[in-house]
Amino acid sequence: MSRLWDWLRHRPALVRAITYVLAVVLVSSPVVVPLYQHEYAATNGRSVIWAPLLLCAVFASCLPLWLRRVHRCSTPWAVLGVHGGWAWWRGWLTAFGAGAVGVMLLYSCQMFLGWGQWVNSSDTPLIRNLLEGLLVGIGVGLAEELIFRGWLLFELEQDYAAPVALWVNAGIFAIAHYLRPLAEIIKTWPQFVGLCLLGAALVWARRVPTRLIHQSRWTTTLGLATGLHGGLVFAYYQFDVNDWIVATDDVPAWVTGLGGNPLAGLLGLLFLSLIAYATYVASHPPYPPKSGMKSAFRRR
User: Fold this and answer.
1) Dihedrals φ, ψ of 243, to 5°?
2) Gap between the Cα atoms of 155 and 299, Å rounded
3) How far apart are CA 175 and CA 178, in angstroms?
């Protein structure tokens, strides 16, 4: 078995990543596949929740073993950015609020310009949608950031320079969210650009230096990236499910968002560009700490 770990250790980053994903799918498929089929049949394809959750749980639970054996990491969760105590949660809360406020500002701007109209509907279950959106935002933020900005970014950082790892990570993130028929890809291509911008912004959020409470060293954690991702998902969920604002069609759909998705429109791309710029500036302080900055992406 040690020969297998040694062989994997010297493979390119993308080979290691594909190997790990295939191994997780292989291990979990005897349970995940029947569960998926049962959920799909029971809900007529409308709601498949437990199968993806179980797959994510297997993926996360196997990460410490992978990092210890392949990368010889003594503190795998710290390498993945899941450490820092209150500093982690403080970053998460700050970024979650910033992401949610940012989405509200986006739709407010759309209304201010006359490109969107407020729909006052009392038929939507507001409390339920708020709770569901909060759970979705927290869950998606934690799962996707652990996968993309935790594990995958670490794998890429072992082989590539930081800028290359960033854009490869952002590209894979966009592709993973954009698996659809070719005709649909061509029709909504601005969304792919938006997903790349979002992926880059989340990598920069992952690299923002954080000073641990009661310690003198600086490090980076997943707190900011997870919170920002979760806040964006939570706020967008509310506007999408509650149908609070609808486009007035005074401007083309490519301005406000193709198919009602702000990621696939000029206004949304400008909004994501501002978020990306803010996280870039935060991750490149004028006087960066002298220690701890690179430790999050190195073998421990």
Assistant:
1) 50, 45
2) 10
3) 5
- The string of DSSP codes covering 219-277 is E--SHHHHHHHHHHHHHHHHHHHHT-EEE-SSS-HHHH-GGG-GGGSHHHHHHHHHHHH
For position 131, what pLDDT does the model report?
Answer: 94
- Cα angle 55-77-177, degrees, rounded to a multiple of 5: 40
pTM (2 decimals)?
A: 0.90
Q: Are 61 and 180 part of one and the same domain?
A: no
Q: Tens digit of pLDDT for each residue in 57-112?
A: 999 999 999 999 999 999 999 999 998 888 899 999 999 999 999 999 999 998 88
Q: Are residues 86 and 216 in the same domain?
A: yes
Last residue of a domain, one of 37, 72, 107: 72
> Quick count: other Cβ atoms within 10 Å of Cβ 93?
13
| Residue range 115-159, pLDDT digits in tens | 888 887 667 788 899 999 999 999 999 999 999 999 999 999 999
Total domains, the chain? 2
Task: Mark whether 44 and 98 lie in a shared domain.
Answer: no
| Burial class, 197, CB count within 10 angstroms (exposed 0-12 / middle 13-18 / buried 19+) | buried
Same domain, 67 and 135: no
Q: The domain containing residue 260 runs over which residues?
A: 81-297
Smallest CA-to-CA distance from 260 within 247, 275, 241 is with 247
* Residue 52 shares a structural domain with residue 190: no
Which residue is it, tokens 């992406």? 297
Residue with more model confidence, 151 or 256: 151
Same domain, 67 and 112: no
Q: What confidence score (pLDDT) does residue 288 get?
A: 58
190/169 same-domain check: yes
From 38, 53, 72, the end of a domain falls on 72
CB 224 within 8 A of CB 230: no
Extract the tokens encoding 81. 């950015």
Residue pair 195/174 in contact by the 8 Å Cβ criterion:
yes
